[in-house]
Amino acid sequence: MTVLDFLSASTALPEAYTRLSMTDMEDRVRRLKQQFGPSLFIPGHHYQKNEVIQFADATGDSLQLAQLSAQNTQADYIVFCGVHFMAETADILTGPEQKVILPDLRAGCSMADMADITQTEKAWEALQTRFGNTILPLTYVNSTAAIKAFCGRHGGATVTSSNAKKMIEWAFTQKERMMFLPDQHLGRNTCYDLGIPLDQMAVWDPIEEKLIVEDETKEVRVILWKGHCSVHEKFTAAHIHQLREEEPEVKVIVHPECTHDVVQLADDAGSTNHIIQTLKNAPAGTKWAVGTEMNLVNRLAQELSHISVRSLNPNLCPCLTMNRIDLPHLLWILDSLNEGDLRHQITVEPHTAEEARWALNRMLDRA
Questions:
Q1: Residue 16 CA: distances (Å) to CA of 19, 25, 107, 328
Q2: Three-class secondary structure of residue 56 per DSSP
Q3: Per-residue pLDDT reduced to its tens digit, 228-259
Q4: Which pLDDT tens digit goes with each residue over 122-131?
Q5: pLDDT in tens, 145-198
Q6: Among 59, 323, 237, 187, residue whose Cα is nearest residue 254
Q7: pTM to 2 decimals?
Q8: Cis before residue 96, ω within 30 degrees of 0?
Q9: What distance in Å separates the CA atoms of residue 188 and residue 215, rounded to the nearest whole number?
Q10: What is the rounded distance in angstroms from the CA atom of residue 176 to the CA atom of residue 199?
Q11: Contact in structure between 235 and 312 (CB atoms under 8 Å)
């Protein structure tokens, strides 16, 4: 058996779980949760399926859930229902005695994977040659532990979609220029809102290993990594234009991971929490088209009976990697734990975790 064969076999869902009914699986998960008691904590990201989110002890965004995991010192096991970088952040923040587990190791994030550490080190060397020691790196929390650590050791920090403005403003008090990883759209939209012209923003292409500058006569202040969210890029200006023509009374609210033209056309844009709170507080009878992940949009449509909620893109699929976490995998992991078999533990190497905490703490100190 090859190493690849071994890894595939050790992480593949046993066939027996595919034959169970939803009712059977739900009953078993409930019993196991009761059996583990406070030693088990299940955080569930907003984008998770309802079949999983019903068993979450807390729901929220990735950083919030990692912080709650760290605060829950009674929990020996953190079964993180999200994606890989989220479980890494939880491992960075939790105590050494706590075990962070991802129910399906295939649950990754395409955005986070668009900036690996080898590419980033090469980019940094090239940019230092061009601009000298004038750049501060910031990374969206939707990034790998290695990228967070890179920012940590170079004096930078992490950001969330909620505090990106504050952190970018801070970055410019430290250095003349800022490099933003890995989502170009959040970086571009936030910097534009802060008054930085688009022609002062350049894009680093990690595949071509070159800086794409719109106007060579302009000073480059912002270097955006050429990465994106595969879900949020599926919302287009054409969707908004069509909606305006057909139903002009519908309000459009989108996540800042959407492209710049979409954010500019929308009535409102903001973090997942901003979207949730805006819709909860919206006047009764109003209609909303939402540009973010489908599971969350559908859940809000079910929960918020006082308004009409739909997706801005009616043909959008849920986040495929996030949806790797499902009820069969959750049950399998809990069954395994109950049998003393610790599967799919996510661990970050201590030195990487230390440097990543520097980046996280620089952000948290400014919260």
A1: 6, 11, 21, 10
A2: coil
A3: 999 999 999 999 999 999 999 999 999 999 99
A4: 999 999 999 9
A5: 999 999 999 999 999 999 999 999 999 999 999 999 999 999 999 999 999 999
A6: 237
A7: 0.93
A8: no
A9: 16
A10: 16
A11: yes
Type of residue numbered 263 = V
Give the pLDDT score at 3. Answer: 33
* Locus of tokens 């492209």: 259
Question: Measured between alpha carbons, how far apart are the two ends of the chain, in Å?
Answer: 50
Q: What is the pLDDT of residue 11?
A: 75
Phi/psi for 158 (5° steps) reads -95, 165
* Cis before 328? omega within 30: no
* Nearest one of 335, 330, 321, 350 to 83, comparing CA atoms: 321
Domains and their CATH numbers in the chain? 3-107+321-349 (3.40.50.10800), 112-230 (3.40.50.10800), 232-311 (3.40.50.10800)
Residues of the chain with pLDDT > 70, as a percent, come to 97
The amino acid sitting at 167 is M
Identity of the amino acid at 201: M
- Here the tokens at position 110 are 């395409």
**Amino acid identity, residue 240?**
I
For the record, the structure tokens of 28 come out as 């078993």
Hey, what are 292's tokens?
Answer: 């973010």
Length of the chain: 367
Q: In what order do the strands lie in the sheet with 77-79?
A: 40-41, 77-79, 99-101
